[in-house]
Write a structure and sequence with these properties.
Layout lengths: L4 H13 L14 H11 L6 E9 L2 H9 L12 H17 L4 E9 L29 H10 L7 H4 L7 H10 L16 E8 L4 E7 L9 E6 L2 E6 L4 E5 L5 E4 L17 H15 L9 H20 L3 E2 L6
Parallel strand pairs: 1-4
Antiparallel strand pairs: 1-5, 2-3, 2-9, 3-4, 5-6, 6-7, 7-8
Helix pairs in contact: 1-9, 4-9, 5-7
Protein name: Gfo/Idh/MocA-like oxidoreductase C-terminal domain-containing protein
Pfam family, one: GFO_IDH_MocA_C
InterPro entries: Gfo/Idh/MocA-like_OxRdtase_C, Gfo/Idh/MocA_Oxidoreductases
Length: 325
């Protein structure tokens, strides 16, 4: 939405004053799995929510690509990593909690490993002429050239070839001279690589979110929701498992997907398609209620992210009023 709380508020004010239909790209709300989880929670499948445990595994090479070498590596040039990478997930937790407002937040996080102090002995400033490249999991040779050698010129390779020519020669030249060929231990990155956010919602409900760079999985979120009558578990695309405390029965719920998804709208497990579909329907019918990532909900979850980062920086628990302060 924006990288400053007041700018977020101004966007919402402008939309409301001018009757603008706004959908924010919080695609995780539109993910078939996320919506099925919401349906199960609202139906009382596990009773009242007591606690949500949610993990976003960024993926070790993805973090190196985007948050060490790439566009979101430096807070002054972009923003802090919780907002850049995980505002989706904080928003998703709020979505599942429903009408309950977050009243308290604490957060801890650091930039781990990707610092000059951790540069291996004998390592070069660029991967393509580095003597220890073979033993480095973040090597540009592994992340980019190995993919290109197998004909894989989509993301992330396409980002590196910024001249619009997608071949080995262009990629090699970009890695020799551009930011994506730099040693991950010699970049100007300063955003945190691992962060936890603890939240208390109205009624004593709690949630714990973890954003983690150092994972093998990439984006395959893992969620456990504990209720008074059952437990819900889900990883990635599902299925969703619900365990009933009364019967001890385990039930699996697959998430519904569209019968056909265009390739360019298949990202995020098909959520991109459902986001665009709902926005078009809302505009065509002049009905903002068809959007589930509208201005008010998005503003509240953004403000929560800003308060979580305040907690991390100031090493304190932040109490949140109804205005998001």
């Amino acid at each position: 939405m924006a990288i400053d709380p007041e700018d977020c508020r101004e966007i919402v004010r402008a939309c409301k004053e001018n009757n603008v239909i706004l959908a924010v790209g919080h695609v995780m709300r539109y993910h078939p799995v996320s919506r099925k989880i919401k349906e199960l929670l609202d139906s009382g499948a596990i009773g009242d929510i007591v606690h949500i445990q949610h993990l976003e595994p960024i993926g070790h090479w993805h973090f190196a690509h985007s948050y060490v070498r790439g566009n979101w590596r430096n807070e002054e040039e972009s923003t802090f990593s919780l907002l850049a990478k995980s505002c989706h997930d904080i928003d998703l937790i709020c979505y599942w909690m429903g009408e309950r407002r977050c009243v308290k937040v604490s957060s801890f996080g650091t930039l781990s490993h990707f610092t000059k102090e951790n540069k291996p002995e004998g390592a070069s400033s660029r991967c393509l002429d580095c003597s220890v490249e073979e033993t480095c999991p973040y090597s540009a040779q592994k992340v980019y050239l190995n993919r290109a050698n197998h004909g894989m010129f989509g993301w992330p390779v396409a980002v590196v070839c910024n001249n619009g020519v997608y071949d080995i020669e262009s990629l090699t030249d970009a890695l020799k001279t551009g930011p994506y060929g730099r040693c991950v231990y010699e970049c100007d990155n300063d955003v945190v690589s691992n962060q936890v956010v603890n939240m208390e919602f109205e009624g004593g409900r709690t949630a714990a979110f973890t954003m983690m760079a150092f994972t093998y999985a990439l984006g395959s979120r893992k969620t456990t929701i504990f209720g008074t009558k059952g437990e819900l578990r889900c990883k990635g695309k599902g299925p969703i498992k619900v365990i009933d405390f009364v019967t001890d029965k385990e039930t699996l719920y697959p998430a519904e997907t569209a019968p056909f998804l265009p390739l360019h709208l298949s990202s995020h497990g098909g959520a991109d398609y459902y986001l665009i579909d709902s926005f078009i329907s809302a505009v065509a019918n002049n009905d903002p209620s068809l959007i589930i990532s509208g201005p008010d909900d998005t503003l509240q979850s953004h403000l929560l992210v800003f308060e979580a980062e305040k907690s991390r920086r100031e090493n304190c628990v932040v109490n949140i009023d109804k205005e998001g302060h």
